[in-house]
């Protein structure tokens, strides 16, 4: 009896096993009509089949799914697209017109090792898009203009990351920090990257393979560390293949040269140079503009009289412009009689400082244009006033504090009723402007006629007075010294008519 029960139990187990095998065999044998499923494999090839979506009927035990180069109508990948294929190890979605990958799209694929979503139209990879995955290779290349958030790879582990040919102009090191300890191969070649900061050195040291070639590197002192990394250690050269050796796009004298053909002295920076400093003081507002150039582009700091400052970093989207401008506005610029402003331009080569002492004249009304100050009903007529400015402190201080600007001699000119003080030295143009109050010019015809008549009367009176004084003076002279008989009178022709008449009377 006991033996009979064991036989029946074993028979039932064999029946269930055969039933499961038949299901698996039937499931594996099924293949979508547009796809190719090689026998004795668990691979499904549906590439270049003009599919508008992921086809139905893909076996659940598929380990490799190739959907490359199909014009999908839906441009967003979602979790529901792959939740049924939990045994996938390789997924190829290259060239399918994908624009966005939703969060946790691949969360149900714990065995996934190879993910290729290259050559699509991906616009951005958001935070934690690939969390939970442990990959060997992640392909994001050939997605021009793709934006990577700082936590795009948060929660991801992968040994290979490929983001070449994406037209990326700058990368933040924070994007790759979640991959520290797992990432071994990084391809970021054929992008638009001009420079890397020294913070990338730690990541590059941890990699066993890196591609940086065909990037338009700007070879100045900021990139000298990468040159040292590539040339000083033979192992580092093995990390970067010779055909992917970094090269310089700029400056012009280094254009097209590979790192192996350069020396340390080629990687230099230029101290900032002031191009233009412009100060415009109007009634209630002042505009201070400071322009400086250098290599790399300097950061501009305006330091106010109270020692507070305003900073203007270089604009990252203007990579080809080697100048920076800092524009600061101040309210009530003439509320004090003596103010000092400083423009500081700095880059890795050093800092250059320009100091300005501005004295507002005491006879110029300081409350003109202040919003809370009541204004008279009729505007007062004031004479144009030139801003009294002393420039003894105009100087440029390098790291060694050597002055490279002499004290300029300002030339005051009038231009469109705005008084400008120019000081030019070594290519620097310094302008201080103040708009004088407008003069009244409301004159009538009566005022003009009165002025002419008054001038004529005053001239006539002046002539009479002068003639009277002259006559009295000569009369006194002839009374005090009358001519004698023997004296010969001077020729009459040498006297004026009035003197001739007086002389004849005296002779009679």
How would you summarize this macromolecular structure in one to three sentences?
By secondary structure, this protein is an alpha/beta fold. It is built from 6 helices and 25 strands.
Report the top-level CATH class of the largest domain.
Answer: Alpha Beta
Quick one: how many beta strands? 25
Distance between the termini: 192 Å
**Would you identify the regions where 5 or more consecutive residues have pLDDT less than 50?**
1-8, 14-28, 366-441, 485-490
Structural class: alpha/beta
CATH H-level superfamily title of the largest domain:
Ribonuclease Inhibitor
Strand arrangement across the biggest beta sheet: 1-2-4-6-8-10-11-12
Mean pLDDT: 75
Structurally, the number of domains stands at 4
CATH fold-level topology of the largest domain: Leucine-rich repeat, LRR (right-handed beta-alpha superhelix)
Strand content: 15-25%
Major sheet details: 8 strands, parallel
Task: Give me the CATH architecture of the largest domain, please.
Answer: Alpha-Beta Horseshoe
**Based on CA inertia axes, which overall geometry fits?**
elongated
Folded structure, characterized:
This protein has 508 residues and is an alpha/beta fold. It has four domains: 1-27; 28-266, Ribonuclease Inhibitor (Leucine-rich repeat, LRR (right-handed beta-alpha superhelix), Alpha-Beta Horseshoe), CATH 3.80.10.10; 270-434, Immunoglobulin-like (Sandwich), CATH 2.60.40.10; 445-507, no CATH class. Helices cover 19% and strands 25% of the residues. The chain is built from six helices and 25 strands. The protein has helices spanning 2-29, 201-206, 224-232, 234-239, 445-480, 497-507; strands at residues 43-45, 64-66, 76-77, 90-92, 100-101, 114-116, 124-125, 134-139, 147-148, 157-162, 185-187, 209-211, 217-218, 248-250, 270-281, 285-295, 299-303, 309-312, 323-331, 338-347, 350-359, 396-397, 411-415, 418-425, 428-434. The strands form six sheets. The protein has an eight-stranded parallel sheet, with no helix packed on it. Strands 19-16-15-25-24-23 form a six-stranded mixed sheet, with no helix packed on it. Helix 5 packs parallel to helix 6. It is elongated.
């Amino acid at each position: 009896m006991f033996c009979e029960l064991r036989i029946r139990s074993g028979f039932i187990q064999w029946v269930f096993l055969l039933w499961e095998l038949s299901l698996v065999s039937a499931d594996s044998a099924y293949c979508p009509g547009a796809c190719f499923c090689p026998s004795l494999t668990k691979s499904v090839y549906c590439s270049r089949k003009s599919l508008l979506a992921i086809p139905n009927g893909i076996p659940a035990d598929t380990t490799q799914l190739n959907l490359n180069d199909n014009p999908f109508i839906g441009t967003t990948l979602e979790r529901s697209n792959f939740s049924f294929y939990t045994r996938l190890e390789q997924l190829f979605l290259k060239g399918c017109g994908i624009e966005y990958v939703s969060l946790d799209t691949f969360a149900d694929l714990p065995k996934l090792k190879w993910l290729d979503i290259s050559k699509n139209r991906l616009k951005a990879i958001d935070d934690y898009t690939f969390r939970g995955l442990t990959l060997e290779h992640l392909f994001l290349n050939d997605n021009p203009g793709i934006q990577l958030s700082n936590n795009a790879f948060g929660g991801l582990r992968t040994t290979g990351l490929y983001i070449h040919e994406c037209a990326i102009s700058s990368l933040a090191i924070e994007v790759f920090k979640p991959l520290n300890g797992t990432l071994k191969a990084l391809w970021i070649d054929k992008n638009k990257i001009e420079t890397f900061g020294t913070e990338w050195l730690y990541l590059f040291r941890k990699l066993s393979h890196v591609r940086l070639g065909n990037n338009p590197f700007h070879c100045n002192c900021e990139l000298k560390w990468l040159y040292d990394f590539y040339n000083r250690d033979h192992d580092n050269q093995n990390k970067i293949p010779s055909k992917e050796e970094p090269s310089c796009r700029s400056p012009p004298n280094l254009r097209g040269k590979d790192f192996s053909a350069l020396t340390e002295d080629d990687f230099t920076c230029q101290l900032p140079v002031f191009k233009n400093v412009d100060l415009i003081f109007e009634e209630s507002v002042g505009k201070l503009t400071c322009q400086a150039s250098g290599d790399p582009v300097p950061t501009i700091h305006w330091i106010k009289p109270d020692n507070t400052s305003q900073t203007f970093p270089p604009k990252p989207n203007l990579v080809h412009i080697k100048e920076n401008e800092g524009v600061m506005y101040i309210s009530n610029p003439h509320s004090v009689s003596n103010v000092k402003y400083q423009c500081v331009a700095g880059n890795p080569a050093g800092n250059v400082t320009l100091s300005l002492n501005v004295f507002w004249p005491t006879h110029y009304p300081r409350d003109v244009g202040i919003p809370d100050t009541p204004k008279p009903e009729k505007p007062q007529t004031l004479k144009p006033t030139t801003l009294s400015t002393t420039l003894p402190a105009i100087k440029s201080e390098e790291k060694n504090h050597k002055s490279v600007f002499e004290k300029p001699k300002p030339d005051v000119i009038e231009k469109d009723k705005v008084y400008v003080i120019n000081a030019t030295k070594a290519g620097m143009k310094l302008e201080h402007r103040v708009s004088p109050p407008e003069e009244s010019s409301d004159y009538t015809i009566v005022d003009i006629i009165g002025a002419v008549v008054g001038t004529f009367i005053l001239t006539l009176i002046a002539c009479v007075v002068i003639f009277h004084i002259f006559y009295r003076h000569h009369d006194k002279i002839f009374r005090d010294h009358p001519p004698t008989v023997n004296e010969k009178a001077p020729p009459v022709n040498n006297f004026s008519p009035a003197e001739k008449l007086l002389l004849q009377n005296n002779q009679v």
